[in-house]
Specification:
The protein is an alpha/beta fold. It is built from 17 helices and 21 strands. It folds into 2 domains: 296 residues, nicotinate phosphoribosyltransferase, CATH 3.20.140; 110 residues, TIM Barrel (Alpha-Beta Barrel), CATH 3.20.20.70. The strands form 4 sheets. The chain has a 7-stranded antiparallel sheet with strand order 13-12-1-5-3-19-20. It has a 6-stranded parallel sheet with strand order 7-6-11-10-9-8. Strands 17-16-21-15-14-18 form a 6-stranded mixed sheet. The chain binds adenosine-5'-triphosphate, 1-O-pyrophosphono-5-O-phosphono-alpha-D-ribofuranose and nicotinic acid (NIO).
Length: 491
């Protein structure tokens, strides 16, 4: 399999916002570039008004960091940038520093396919301030998009109740990587495969598909079109039956299917792409049953999303498999996940970590300080709650976690009594990659296994319950003290 970096011929170190470079220059000039800092990547709200999200995009992060260096041409480009006085913006010493810099950070991340919730650090980066800062924009780009799409795919898969979902998004996706990384994330979220052949090759995802209306239009009549298609691919045939008249299309598909079966071939199915999908699928199922072709599958497509799939299930539509493009790969109803990357601690001259926050009018938007980790607790085989804590805290005995949005909500937990695990796992140690690549099938299996651990009230689409995520009581108090301190200082 190609690595992700190979999609782009050049280094990706410049895949950053300009302000990251100007800040890096500032850190270097102020001799702060080697000062240790800790940053967390997290989002504040689940997308699609849902109750959960699926972490995705880490492999892009790992690939990006493994190749994180400035090429000669990157340096030449930065050297060519001038300020408003017409002179070069950056000193040569800084550019030399960038050119010879090697990645030195510690990175921890929640594995792809894990269910995650607002405010939890999906990625924690600890290391030289300059390096932590430079990688912000790329990390957000990878994680925000793929987490969004994996979550959408998981929602669609939940609605489809185990039926295969084919991702058909290439033609409507936002550009090249908008299609490729969407195919990857859709598979991790639960799709059975993609129509995007490059994504199939690149990520080892099954490639799936039917045929277009143009196939039928290209022949004199529909029967001849179906006959020719079946004979071309007798072991990979799904007929699109709605080009002219759906009931008649179904009859013709049945005629050719019977003919092919007498020759020992199994036709996979028919596809409906317009009209009332519940009505036509029931009509098709009846006709197939009558023809002794109950094993032939019915595929539906046409601007579907999780809500329409759920509605069609409620209508007892006889649909076995779903083709979903636009609304999946563009995350149509919420085109971005608002993940952010915030500095949470910085090492002082004595080598001690100092907690940091960023104030906001809305207290829920004030970030969590410290060196965070997330502990997930399980009870009776289900996920029971996640606690964000500082990695330096002793958690023996009973601990209390407090909901930062509503401090009256708290929960006592004992890690000796409940099963629990730390979600953030080491990915880079002092710049050395310790991440063990997992197959994309394994990542998909993780999503599915995790969804089984989540209560159905949290998975429902309308007004889902809020999964308990809290701050360890000491961390809650430290955050509150910092908020009060900075608020008083700014008065
Ligand atoms: N039984 C149904 N219940 C709810 N929504 C449906 C049902 N059948 C189809 N839909 C959805 O309704 C929307 C519009 O369907 P419609 O058949 O009008 O599509 P269309 O694109 O206008 O068709 P055509 O290609 O014939 O112009 C699509 O998103 C489709 O998935
Ligand atoms: O509706 P989506 O969820 O985006 O799924 C992809 C759509 O793309 C195709 O339509 P298109 O009209 O582009 O080509 P076709 O002639 O093959 O139907 C396909 O028939 C689906 O309707
Ligand atoms: O194979 C299909 O049926 C397909 C592929 C891409 C888009 N729409 C449909």
């Amino acid at each position: 399999m190609d690595n992700i970096q190979s999609t782009y011929k050049n280094s990706m170190a410049l895949l950053t916002d300009f302000y990251e470079i100007t800040m890096a220059y500032g850190f270097w000039k102020n001799e702060m570039h080697q000062q240790k800092a800790a940053f967390n990547l997290f989002f504040r709200n689940n997308p699609f008004s849902g109750g959960f999200s699926i972490a995705c995009g880490l492999e892009y992060v790992v690939d990006f960091l493994n190749h994180f260096s400035f090429t000669d041409s990157d340096i030449d480009y930065l050297a060519s940038l001038n300020g408003n006085d017409g002179k070069p913006l950056f000193e040569k010493g800084f550019l030399d520093y960038l050119q010879h810099m090697t990645f030195e950070c510690d990175v921890e991340a929640i594995p792809e396919g894990t269910i995650v919730f607002p405010n939890e650090p999906l990625i924690k980066v600890k290391g030289p301030l300059l390096q932590c800062q430079l990688i912000e924009s790329a990390l957000l780009n990878f994680i925000n998009f793929q987490t969004l799409i994996a979550t959408k795919a998981a929602r669609i898969s939940i609605a489809a109740k185990g039926d295969p979902v084919m991702e058909f998004g290439l033609r409507r996706a936002q550009g090249i990587d908008g299609s490729l990384s969407a195919s990857r994330a859709s598979f991790i979220g639960g799709c059975a495969g993609t129509s995007n052949v490059l994504a199939g090759k690149k990520f080892n995802i099954p490639v799936l598909g039917t045929h277009a209306h143009s196939w039928v239009q290209a022949f004199e009549d529909e029967l001849k079109a179906f006959d020719a298609f079946a004979n071309t691919l007798p072991n990979n045939t799904i007929f699109l039956v709605d080009t002219y008249n759906t009931p008649r299309g179904i009859d013709k598909a049945i005629e050719i299917t019977k003919k092919m079966e007498t020759r020992g071939h199994k036709i996979n199915g028919i596809r409906l792409d317009s009209g009332d999908l519940a009505y036509f699928s029931q009509l098709a199922r009846g006709k197939l049953r009558e023809a002794g072709l109950s094993h032939v599958k019915i595929v539906a497509s046409n601007d579907l999303d999780e809500h329409l799939v759920a509605s069609l299930k409620d209508q007892e539509a006889e649909i076995d498999s779903w083709g979903i493009g636009t609304k999946l790969v563009t995350a149509y109803d919420q085109p971005a996940l608002g993940g952010v990357y915030k500095l949470s601690a910085i090492e002082n001259k004595n080598g001690e970590w100092e907690n940091r926050i960023k104030l906001s009018e809305q207290s829920i938007k004030i970030n969590i300080p410290g060196l965070q980790q997330v502990k997930r607790f399980y009870k009776d085989g289900k996920m029971a709650g996640d606690m964000i804590f500082d990695e330096r805290t002793d958690l023996s005995g009973t601990v209390r976690m407090i909901d930062p949005a509503d401090p009256t909500r708290s929960k006592k937990l004992n890690k000796e009594e409940l099963t629990c695990e730390d979600l953030l796992k080491p990915v880079f140690c002092k710049g050395q990659c310790v991440y063990e690549k997992e197959s994309i099938q394994k990542l998909q299996e993780r999503t599915s296994a995790q969804l089984n651990l989540l209560d159905k009230t949290i998975k429902r689409f309308a007004n889902p319950h809020r999964y308990p995520v809290g701050l360890e009581e000491g961390l809650y108090q430290r955050r509150l003290d910092l908020i009060l301190k900075y608020k008083q200082e700014s008065e």
